[in-house]
Amino acid sequence: MKAIRVETPFKVTAKAERLGRVERERILANPGFGNVFSEHLIHATWSKADGWHDHELRPYSSIQLDPGALVFHYSQSVFEGLKAFHQQDGGVAVFRADAHAARFRRSSRRLALPELPESTFIEAIDRLLAIDREWVPTAAEHSMYLRPFMYATEVTLAVHPSATVDFFLIASPSSSYFPSGVKPVTVWLSEDFTRAARGGTGDAKTGGNYAGGLLVHAQAVEQGCDQVVWLDAAEHRWVEEMGGMNIFFVYGNGSGARLVTPALTGTLLQGITRDALLVLGRDLGYAVEEGRISTEEWREGCASGAISEAFACGTAAVITPIGAVKSKGHAWKIGDGNPGPVSMKLRQALVDIQRGAAHDKHGWMHRVPESV
Ligand code: PLP
Ligand code: COI
Question: 351: buried, middle or exposed (CB in 10 Å: 19+, 13-18, 0-12)?
Answer without folding.
Answer: middle
